[in-house]
Amino acid sequence: MKILVAGASGLIGWDAVGLLKTAGHYVRTLSRDPKRAARLSSLADDVRLADATARASLDGVCDSIDVVVSALGAPVSPTSFARTSYLETDLVANLALLDVARAAGVRRFVYVSVHVEPSYAQTRYARAHTEFENALRSSGLEYGIVRLTGVFGALREMLPMARLGVIPLVGDGRALSNPIHESDVAACVVDLALRAEAGLELDAGGPEVLTRRAIAELAFRALGKTPRLPASPPVIARLSSMLIGLVNARARDFIDFITLASTHDCVAPNRGELRLGPYLEAKATPSAGS
Ligand SMILES: NC(=O)c1ccc[n+]([C@@H]2O[C@H](COP(=O)([O-])OP(=O)(O)OC[C@H]3O[C@@H](n4cnc5c(N)ncnc54)[C@H](OP(=O)(O)O)[C@@H]3O)[C@@H](O)[C@H]2O)c1
Predict the structure, then answer these.
(1) 127-156 pLDDT, tens per residue?
(2) Dihedral of CA 271/276/277/278: which sign?
C-alpha cells in the first residue's frame, strides 16, 4: 500500500513510519523543517517538505497515495518557540491536507487527535482537533481517528526540570491520567490505516493510571533524586497565559490546555503496553541526552 505520513518527523509520526516500513509499505513523508526531515531519508521512500498551512505547497503530495496518516500538529510542548496557534496549524493545515487528499482520490485518512474530557473541551487546543475530526467525518473519505491522552515523549521534558531540582505542579497534583508510549499510539494508528472498515474511532491511553504528582515523581526517580514538587495555584498559570498570549498564541493555548488537563482527570481506555518509569529511566542515561 502507498501511505503518506504527515507529521513524520514528530513523536508519533516517526514511529508510524517505522512500523509501516517494517510491514513492507511504500511510505512518503510530509513535514516542514529540513533538518528534522533529514533523519527520515534513511527510512522513507519519498521525503517531501512543505508548510501545510499553505494549501498550494501541498500540490502533488497525495498523488498515487492510498492512505493518508496525519500526526501533523503544532508542538505540545512548554519549551517550543513555535508561535502559530493550534487552530492555525492543527486545523488549517489538516483541512488543507484533507482537501488535497480528496482531490487526489485518496481512499482513507487517519488522524491523530487528542482525548477530550469536558473540563478542557472548550480550550483552543482541544477545539482545533475536534473541529478537524468533524470535517473528516463529513469528508466522504473512509476515516480513522485515534484520540490519545499524552505521550511519554512529551513527559520526557520533565527530566531537565527534575535535574535542576524542581518540577512545579499545577494544582495539587491529584488529578489522574494514563500517558501512552508513542510507539503504542503508532501501532493503533497503523492498525486503523491498514483496515478496510470505514469510520473507526478510538481513544487511547497507557496501561498505568497515575496522579500528576506520581508522574512527576517518576522523573526524579529516573535520576535518583529526591522529588521537589511545589504546588502552584492554577491562577498563576492563567495569569502567565494572559501575559505570554501577548507574544505567542501557541504557548498561550498550550498553558490554557495543560492547566485544565493537569487539574482534572484525563483517562482513556488502555491501548498500550509500555510503562513510563522504565522509559524515563532509559531517557535519563547520559547517552540518551536528556
Ligand atoms: N504529544 C502529546 O502528548 C499529544 C497528546 C495528545 C494529542 N497529540 C496530538 O497528536 C498529534 C501529533 O503529536 P506529536 O506529539 O507527534 O507532534 P510533534 O512531535 O510536535 O510533531 C508534529 C509534526 O507535525 C509537523 N508539522 C507541524 N506544523 C506543520 C506544518 N505547518 N506543515 C507541515 N508539517 C508540520 C512537524 O514537522 P516539523 O518537524 O517540520 O516541524 C512534525 O513532523 C498532534 O495533533 C498533537 O496535538 C499529542
Answers:
(1) 999 999 999 999 999 999 999 999 999 999
(2) positive
User: CA-to-CA distance for 193 and 197, rounded, in angstroms?
Assistant: 10
Nine cell digits for residue 241: 497565559
* pLDDT bucket at 20, cuts 50 / 70 / 90: very high
- Provide the terminal-to-terminal Cα distance of the chain, rounded to the nearest Å: 37
Residue 151 Cα to ligand 1 midpoint, Å, equals 12
The count of other CB atoms within 10 Å of the CB of residue 103 is: 12
Q: Is the CB of 71 under 6 A from ligand 1?
A: yes
Of residues 125, 133, 126, 180, the one with CA closest to residue 152: 180
**Residue 188's pLDDT band (cuts 50, 70, 90):** very high
Task: Give me the pLDDT at residue 289, please.
Answer: 66
Q: What is the pTM of this model?
A: 0.97
Closest protein CA for atom 19 of ligand 1: 10
- Which CA distances in Å does 133 have to 112, 115, 129, 263? 9, 12, 6, 25
Contacts of 81 (CB under 8 A, 6+ apart): 248
Cell readout for 65 is 497515495
pLDDT above 90: residue 199: no
Asked if residue 51 has its Cβ within 6 Å of ligand 1, the reply is: yes
Residue 200 phi, psi (nearest 5): -95, 130
Ligand 1 atom closest to residue 32's alpha carbon, by position in its atom list = 40
Cell numbers for 155, please give them: 513527559
Please enumerate in sequence order all residues whose Cβ is within 8 A of that of 58, keeping only pairs 6 or more positions apart, or say none.
30, 50, 52, 96, 97, 100
Q: Which residues of 146-171 are buried (b: 16+ CB within 10 A; e: fewer)?
A: bbbbbbbbbbbebbebbeeeebebbb
Sign of CA dihedral 8, 9, 15, 17: positive
The vertex-243 CA angle with 239 and 264, nearest 5°, equals 40
